[in-house]
Amino acid sequence: MLAARLHLGPERRLQVEEVPVPEPGPDQVLIKVEAAGVCLSDVHLIDGTLSPLYLKGEAVTLGHEVAGTVHALGPGVTAAKVGDRVVLQAGELRRDKLFTRGVDYDGGWAEYTLARVDTLVPLPDELPFEQACFIPDAVSTPWGAITGTAEVRPGEAVGVWGIGGLGAHAVQLLRMIGAAPIVAVDPLPAARQRALDFGADFAFDAGEPDLRRKIFAATGGTGLAAAFDFAGVAAVREQAAVCLGFEGRLVLVGLTDKPITITNSTMFSFFKQQVRGHYGSSPGDVAQLVQLQRLHRIEFSRSVSAVVPLADAEKAVHALEAKQGNPIRIVLKP
Predict the structure, then answer these.
(1) Where does residue 318 fall: left (phi above 0), alpha (psi -120 to 50 degrees), or beta otherwise?
(2) Mean pLDDT within 312-329
(3) 150 Cβ contact list (under 8 Å, min separation 6)
(4) CA-CA distance, 229 to 233, in Å (whole number)?
(5) What is the DSSP letter of 117?
(6) Cis preceding-peptide flag for 181 (omega within 30 of 0)
């Protein structure tokens, strides 16, 4: 079968190549991949900003956002049947350690992939694979950050820095749960317009010299109850921190290896503000989001920026990295 493999080492490279079709073991199924999302985390894995923690070996098939159908069952598996439409959790817990699909073990940038049966989430027939595949991560990560880590409540003022794959969905989800006002911040005009289209109340340029004043004016002088960094940029975190109000929470979702700086730690402490780290989502989040989509509370058709053949995975990665066409999610299709 065809698979897009990341080869580690001094010269990392992504290569689309032929590999054997894997065979499912006990508690596993073989998934025929129908769609797989291309995430900025994949770009960071390729460029070396991120590295697998638990990978055995020097190569891995990328892809942690995966949807498809059950193609074959492992020995003794009864909790799934051939033909089931499913989306896969982005990772699995093994001995109290979180192993990420497409990072610590082979993922879904392939014609077929293995999945532990307890990582399958059923999909309704009306939800296209291209829209379902990125629910794990692109949607479930901001959902977990909003409802879990940040504990956002209705009526709270929130800020979203970075209106890309995660931030665009965060705006939709924040509006759905009643956060208000929603302030989006991004240097790109197209991204700011997208934020407004997706439900933001205000959209500001990150380069505006009086951004803090504008955000406090937009929130009636209170500042933000929660500010989300979806960009993974040190300067963003400093900027977001000074826009927090009393007991405001700065939630770090975007990944970076750069240090965190609080420019005025005395005021940060005086106003009882907090920095909270966030990664991924809880197992129940994906199923919850599928249900919300089925009930038409959210929809993802606008999130599919392009559908690209698996053979062109390298081109898709370059398009995302270069922000060609201002993409939300580029989807690979075997």
Answers:
(1) alpha
(2) 93
(3) 158, 226, 228, 249, 251, 276, 278
(4) 8
(5) G
(6) yes
Rounded Cα–Cα distance for residues 27 and 4 (Å):
25
Q: Which two tokens stand for residue 214?
A: 């504008």
Q: Which tens digit of pLDDT belongs to each residue from 236-259?
A: 999 999 999 999 999 999 988 788
Tell me the Cα Rg of the chain: 20
Distance (Å, rounded) from C-alpha 190 to C-alpha 309?
A: 26
**Integer angstrom CA distances of residue 252 from 34, 227, 242, 280:** 32, 9, 14, 11
pLDDT tens column, 65-85: 999 999 999 999 999 999 999
pTM across the whole model = 0.92
Using the structure block, give the residue that is written with the tokens 């700086």.
261
The string of pLDDT tens digits covering residues 49-70 is: 889 999 999 999 999 999 999 9
Q: Which among 207, 247, 254, 259 is positioned nearest to 228, based on CA atoms?
A: 254
Residue predicted with more confidence, 255 or 297:
297
Residues 6+ apart with CB under 8 A from 57: none
